Each structure stands twice: as C-alpha cells, then as structure tokens.
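Hi R.,

As promised on Friday, here is the backbone we talked about, encoded as structure tokens. Could you run it through your design pipeline when you get a chance and send me back a sequence?
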C-alpha cells in the first residue's frame, strides 16, 4: 500500500466572509431615453427569436413549449436581481458570472477614464412567451417613466433596465466561440468525413417534467446519432 505524508490541519476557527473591494466611483450610465431606445430594439429581436422558436416546435409530439435562454449583461451589479427574476412566472434563473472587461459604449463609461474597460455581470435566464411579454410590459412602463413604481419585489428590474448593456438570445457562439470547432468541422469535411462526433451540453431545468421532456426531444431528432453518457443528471439539463 502506498504511503502518503501526514497532513496536519490547524484547529477550525470562525472567520468573517471576505468583502469585495469597490472599484472606485460607479460608472456613468446613459440617460433613460437613450437607454430605452436601444433596449427596445433588442427586445424586439427577442420577440422575433421567440416567434422562430414557436415555428420550430409547433409540430413536436412531446408538448414542448417555446422557450429562449437569454443573456443579460449589465454594467456594474444589480442588487437582488435574481430575486426579481424568480417572481415572474415563466422566468427561470440558469446562472451568472462576473465580466471583467466590457468596452465602454452606449453611454457607459468610467467617470475618470472614458477609455477604461468596465466591469459587470452576465446573467443566463430561461423565458417562455408569457414571461417575455411580462418583461416587455415592465420595460414599457419604465420607458414611459423611469421613476415608476414596480409591483412589490420587482423594483430591482428598474435598476436592471438602467444598467443593461445588452439582452439577447443565447446562441451557439456563446458556447463554442474561440474553441476552433468550426475550423475542425471544415477540416473534417475537406477530408471526406461525413459523421462528426460531438457532446451536447444541456441546460439544467428545475422540474422533473421539463428534464424528461428535454431528454426525449433530443432523442427524437432523427438526424442526430448520439449517446447520453452522464445518466439522469444529464437528462436534467436542456
């Protein structure tokens, strides 16, 4: 039997949670009118993407409802944003991460150095048509009057609209950007390879019904040949 060195750990002790250091003054944000005009175009594209998704799924035998995974990038942080998302039926939080380098644009810039890269957050949210329409209604209210009162618990969305850098559908580029996969496919095609192995990374969904629907739909795609390798946990994603 292999021998390993004995590790001596210190006695456990309670410590305070580390606090993030502020990065100076908050960044300058665009005025509400300019921000609203820009976001209105992005929300219109979301509705178009939802319409396309509806057409894609209208004949599916599994009863899947059209949904979109959204990418929301904010400049700075938005307090209690996830709590607001969870209060709108049909919106489902998928994940979030910090963004270190966002180009200053659209009226967002550092107060002291307009050319400085900005920091923010990226949120991934799943939405169905009903939730997208509710989000549109709240945006319309904010567009008419940025100081309007939102229903209880949804006030953070006003801050989100003011700090939103972009809102768009999640797409293939978010998953495989800069991985070289497109170049790999082109190389395989040039060499006569007609079948390409791949892995499918699915969104984790919160209910068993949606988990099984997602797995069944992926298996039903006749043009794809694949094997799910990770068992039930993998089926809990879409």
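Update: got your reply. Pasting your designed sequence below so it's all in one thread:
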């Amino acid at each position: 039997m292999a021998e390993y060195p004995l590790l001596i750990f210190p006695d456990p002790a309670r410590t305070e949670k580390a606090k993030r250091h502020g990065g100076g003054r908050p960044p300058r944000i665009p005025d509400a009118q300019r921000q609203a005009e820009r976001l209105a175009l992005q929300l219109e594209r979301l509705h178009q993407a939802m319409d396309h998704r509806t057409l894609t799924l209208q004949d599916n035998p599994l009863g899947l409802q059209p949904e979109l995974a959204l990418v929301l990038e904010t400049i700075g942080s938005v307090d209690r944003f996830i709590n607001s998302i969870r209060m709108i039926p049909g919106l489902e939080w998928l994940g979030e991460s910090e963004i270190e380098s966002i180009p200053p644009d659209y009226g967002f810039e550092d107060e002291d150095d307009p050319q400085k890269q900005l920091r923010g957050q990226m949120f991934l949210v799943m939405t169905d048509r009903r939730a997208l329409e509710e989000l549109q209604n709240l945006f319309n209210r904010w567009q008419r009057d940025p100081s309007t009162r939102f229903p209880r618990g949804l006030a953070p969305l006003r801050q989100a609209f003011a700090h939103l850098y972009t809102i768009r559908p999640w797409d293939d580029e978010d998953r495989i950007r800069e991985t070289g996969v497109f170049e790999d496919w082109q190389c395989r095609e040039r060499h006569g390879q007609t079948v390409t192995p791949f892995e499918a990374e699915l969104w984790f969904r919160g209910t068993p019904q949606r988990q099984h629907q997602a797995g069944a739909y992926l298996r039903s795609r006749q043009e794809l040949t694949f094997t799910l390798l990770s068992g039930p946990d993998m089926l809990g994603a879409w």
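One thing I noticed while checking it: Confidence is low (pLDDT under 50) at residues 4-9, 15-22, 225-238.

Thanks again,
M.
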